[in-house]
User: Fold this.
Amino acid sequence: MRWSGQELTTEQAGALPGLARLNNLVRSVRTPEFAGITFHEILAKSALNRVPGQSAMPFGWTINPYRGCSHACAYCLSPETLILMADGRQKPLWEVRVGDAIMGTETVGAYRRYVQTTVLASWDTRKRGYRVTLADGTELVASGDHRFLTERGWKYVTRAMRGDGQRPYLTDNNKLMGFGLNGLTEATQPNYFEPSYRRGYLTGMIRGDGMMISRDYPRRAGGGNKVRLFRLALTDVEALNRSRLFLEQEGVVTQTRPFSAPSLTRRALTSIYSGKAASFARITELIRWVDDPDDDWHAGFLAGVFDAEGSCSRGILRISNKDTAILDNIQRSLSALGIEHVLEGARPNGVRCVRVTGGLPMRSRFFGLVGPAIDRKLSIAGAAVKSAALLQVVSVEDLETTMDMIDITTGTGDFIANGVISHNCFARNTHTYLDLDAGKDFDNEIIVKVNVAEVLRKELARPAWERNAVALGTNTDPYQRAEGRYRLMPGVIAALADSGTPLSILTKGTLIRRDLDLLVEASTLVPVDLALSIAIYDDELQSAVEPGTPSTAARLATVTAIRERGLRCSVFMMPILPFLTDTRAHLDDALRQAKAAGASDVMYTALHLRPGVRDWFMQWLARDHPDLVPRYHELYGRNAYAPKGYRQWLALRIKPLIRAHGLEHGIEDPVTGGVRSRALARPVPAVPAFPGQPVPGPGLLIAGELPPELHPTLF
Assistant:
């Protein structure tokens, strides 16, 4: 059922008032993959929108490729099945997007091999759930109609549930093909945000490939010069950026510069360095051997030393070194994480290798638990599908409940789910023609400016255009789920960068990761400011208030991905919900998580109940928190903004926490309760306690951006 085949007449579409009279309406589209949503594709006459002069917004121009937002959807569950991506990492199924590169399989000669493929479509459905348990502990939750590849061919989870239809189905005698999870679950993925992981990574990376110079040079006239130098030079930007970010989070500021030019046989090297004695002392402390490390340290150490000294070629994963202490700690960490390995004999130059054994199942366990930064070392493309793992079916359990499930369509017709080969799920005529992301959304009307990039280029080419900064995401999210199908943002980003126009993007969507290469390239031409909207750090509350949006953890991981690419990324704690997310504990934990994810800074506002939003929010509040309804009526009355007293109280509570976590950005607007401008610091006047809540001591509003030496250098 092709997208173009879903076109509706104006009467069928239920077009927005006045839309049918416009001569720029191309078509209105509905599709089962966006239940309840109609997309009205229009030819926009303009792309740039001027912000009214009386607005308090710190920008003058915006672009909104969409009007309306398909993020306002209503997922009930987010399937946690791990999908093997093309770079060797695994993502939960709910995080996989249309256009993502993942691993599938195809028969090449006499063998079925792992190959890269693309996600062509994604949608959700509700089906009765079944749990398939394998001998190695791998579990898969799927519908009865789902098929997995066994050593005897494709088999459904269950036999035909009705009628005389016969079909092959899983039994206890079947063995699935793949490598399984080998005890790996989403819960045991690397804890990138933990200090012990960070310090373990720095230990492995710097001891493996860094240089620490400490020398004293005497002078003839007496005294001497003390030289303390740290330097790390790498060809892989991912590992260098992670090292720089981790050092920054530990209070060590480094500088970046080219180290060596590329040659016919070697890629260019870039280095980070510091010649400060205090930084040298701090790094020395960070990379000391730990007597009793935890699993996070072990994982971080292995990630760091693998990025520095490891390789994965022809299916063999090795980490090489000649330092006995490093080799001993590699083996200690592998043993602690349950990764099989052997120590090979010494080469003529004294180098020895620790080799991971156990084939692809153990390599997958290593990558899953450790989480190296360098993508090129992780791919399994070309490897033959050999099922050495214990993947015999132990049981197929009827969960006796109907569940929300997500399915994807790929170029190869299969994908790797929880380490086993899975077929595209539902055999129906529409299956291979879907070409967009999906969700069950409440009834909505989305305007899509399908020609926005083309119109934008013409506007930016006008002599009168002064290359003022342009903000995206100020009205509707440019990376909402529909962007997976329409792909408007790459053209918008390229047009702005090519014209020399600075840009900023605010989004809740992890789909921005698709365009990181383009954004890095744009940042070499113009200033690029990125921000993730992450307001709620309580999972249950977040799923209730923002159903259908990526989870807090997924958005924090996106912040880290952006920072590891060398770009700054702010976190917008907007809005803060009175009586729900304004407690000191919630704010402190939120800021701690944002800092650990690598956020450059944090901005906030109190909840703003503008017309249209107010009715929806109060309906939700009455359903989920009826005890708070009277307090909200008292707090907001007929106003859109919380009262001045609350906003001042909130500023006094959150500002010291923002300052303590090193996440200052600008000053807060006394009217909106949010960031107004980068102005001079000024003291906050003392205010009475907000009713029912204590007031911390006086604070100071911090001004200005982070100093230049903290800004990541792009390369």
Q: What stands out?
A: The chain is about 25% helix and 30% strand. The longest helix spans residues 644-660.
